[in-house]
Amino acid sequence: LAPLLPHIDHRNRGMRTRLGCLSHKSDSYNDFTAILPDKPNRALKRLSTEEATRWADSFDVLLSHKYGLAAFRAFLKTEFSEENLEFWLACEDFKKTRSAAKLASKAQRIFEEFIDVQAPREVNIDFQTRELTRRNMQEPSLSCFDQAQGKVHSLMEKDSYPRFLRSKIYTDLLSQTQRRLS
Fold first, then answer.
1. pLDDT tens digits for 52-70?
2. In a domain? residue 41
3. What pTM was estimated for this model as a whole?
4. CATH of the domain at 78
5. Which value, in Å, is the radius of gyration of the alpha carbons in the chain?
6. Which Pfam families would you find in this protein's record (predicted)?
7. Does 147 reside within a domain?
8. Is the Cβ–Cβ distance between 28 and 169 less than 8 Å?
9. DSSP 3-state helix, strand, coil percentages of the chain (rounded to 5)?
10. Is 43 inside any structural domain?
11. Is residue 79 assigned to a domain?
């Protein structure tokens, strides 16, 4: 048993190092070029303090602004929960589907990616919602994900959104827009 102890200690030390790296992950972005879509330097110059401040008015205002959406996505990545936003966006895109032929295949892809148990990017929804969505998949319609999407929206709004507004990502972004004015 004694010869195994140094090996076990070495593995634990390695695990502590890896966990330490995760726990020190910062949600600060001093360089916002990584989170802003298309031509980020120009985008940051165009983003006004007023626009960024409006993101705090409501969660839906944040989601409707492309730079707000990008900043929120970056924040969710620091929390390892970006699958919630990706699912919500996939549902929004799904609702725009006009082709009946594409409807079923798109619905299946969304279900397999986000809803199914052990899905690669499984969202956190209750059993009843998961089962209702599974039943809706038997005859997919534009509303088959409505309940699941609503639950995920509510979860983000009540949980992630308030933390985003307090995060360094958001406060640093506001500071950068304010500094441009002075």
1. 999 999 999 999 999 999 9
2. no
3. 0.77
4. 1.10.167.10
5. 21
6. RGS (PF00615)
7. yes
8. yes
9. 70, 0, 30
10. no
11. yes
